[in-house]
From TrEMBL:
Organism: Bifidobacterium asteroides
GO biological process, one term: transmembrane transport
Region Disordered: start-end pairs: 1-39
One Pfam family it belongs to: BPD_transp_1
Domain ABC transmembrane type-1 as annotated: residue spans: 105-317
Statement: the UniProt record of this protein carries the keyword Membrane: yes
Keyword Transport: yes
Family to which this protein belongs: Belongs to the binding-protein-dependent transport system permease family.
Membrane topology of this protein: Multi-pass membrane protein
GO cellular component: plasma membrane
Lineage of producing organism: Bacteria, Bacillati, Actinomycetota, Actinomycetes, Bifidobacteriales
Keyword entries, A-Z: Cell membrane, Membrane, Transmembrane, Transmembrane helix, Transport
Name of protein: Glycerol-3-phosphate ABC transporter permease
InterPro entries cross-referenced by the UniProt entry: ABC_transporter_permease (IPR051393), MetI-like (IPR000515), MetI-like_sf (IPR035906)
Domain of life the protein comes from: Bacteria
Length: 328
């Protein structure tokens, strides 16, 4: 059959009947035919398989323990026997009347806020110092970061023998200077301050690294422009450097705050929560209630409270820092 417009006779494969291009290529090839629906479904299922390990880990190590803890918090289980009965919100009501729990919550906020503030000040100062071209800065950075790689239990034991009354290194120095020994761990105020200090010493290197990363990825053209405009050192830091470090500041604050609020090892090793319950954090108090008082249901309720507390505080801090006016 002849084309009505050009009069040309279209080429056709004599065996398959498929139309051909002028050069003899099959015209049906490359006309936008995608993969079949079955193949697309198979490809989508294959991609989803890559998410499976992460989903399994999330369910096994986060979702299931959380739901299990919520369930146990509604019972009077002692943690050892199979017998347990539903008590509703009785464990949560007990938290409101537990005087020790109130002190524990206060301690937890002191550890969280105190450690966070101290680590930001020291971490940023060290980052600014070690970002300069000074001799041996790589070695100094490594030494400062090294404690973060040590288990908190080991760090706690080391500093326990620094502040120990009879043979502690600090009291030995004080005796050599003609001063009286101090029973550091017999005083609740001293004990809380020691815990904050040791926790900050261990993890200040993490804050330093975060701020160093921010300083080294900073737009130097902005800094140089400020110097050309005659900005002094403090003015340049406050109006240029600090606003550009806002993402690093947020990351460091959130990580330090979460670590401080769930503090356990350091408290357990240094003071054991004493004297009395005076230095317990929420995490160590959960252990005391569970193992010593054999009240797993109440301990689970406190654990749920801690989870909600950390989630709310983290959300509020993120939201608050996002609203800060970092501009000059």
């Amino acid at each position: 059959m002849t084309d009505s417009r050009s009069g040309a006779i279209p080429l056709q494969d004599t065996q398959s009947g498929s139309p051909l291009h002028g050069d003899g290529r099959d015209a049906s090839v490359g006309q936008g035919r995608g993969p079949s629906p079955r193949r697309r479904r198979f490809r989508g299922a294959s991609i989803n398989l890559f998410y499976l390990p992460a989903v399994i880990l999330l369910v096994v190590f986060i979702i299931y323990p959380l739901l299990s803890g919520i369930g146990l918090s509604l019972t009077n289980w002692d943690g050892y026997n199979e017998a347990k009965s539903f008590v509703g919100l009785a464990n949560y009501k007990q938290m409101l009347t537990d005087t020790n729990f109130k002190q524990v919550v206060i301690n937890t906020f002191i550890y969280g806020i105190g450690s966070t503030v101290l680590q930001q000040i020291l971490g940023l100062a060290l980052a600014l110092l070690l970002n300069a071209k000074i001799k041996g800065r790589t070695l100094i950075r490594a030494i400062i970061y090294l404690p973060a790689l040590v288990a908190p239990v080991i760090m706690g034991i080391m500093y326990y023998f620094v502040f120990q009354y009879q043979q502690g290194a600090l009291n030995a120095v004080m005796t050599a200077l003609g001063l009286h020994k101090v029973a550091w761990f017999n005083n609740a105020g001293f004990s809380v301050c020691i815990i904050v200090l040791v926790n900050s010493i261990q993890f200040v290197g993490v804050s330093m690294i975060i701020y160093l990363a921010g300083l080294q990825t900073m737009d130097q053209e902005v800094v140089e422009a400020a110097e050309v405009d005659g900005a002094s050192g403090w003015k340049k830091f406050w109006n240029i450097t600090l606003p550009l470090l806002a993402p690093s500041f947020t990351t460091s604050v959130v990580l330090n705050l979460i670590g401080g609020l769930k503090l356990y090892d350091m408290v357990k090793v240094l003071t054991g929560g004493g004297p009395g319950y005076a230095t317990n954090s929420i995490s160590t108090y959960i252990g005391t209630i569970y193992f010593d008082n054999q009240a797993a249901g109440y301990a689970s309720a406190i654990g749920v409270f801690l989870f909600v507390l950390i989630a709310i505080v983290t959300w509020l801090v993120n939201k608050g820092l996002a609203k800060l006016d970092w501009e000059a």
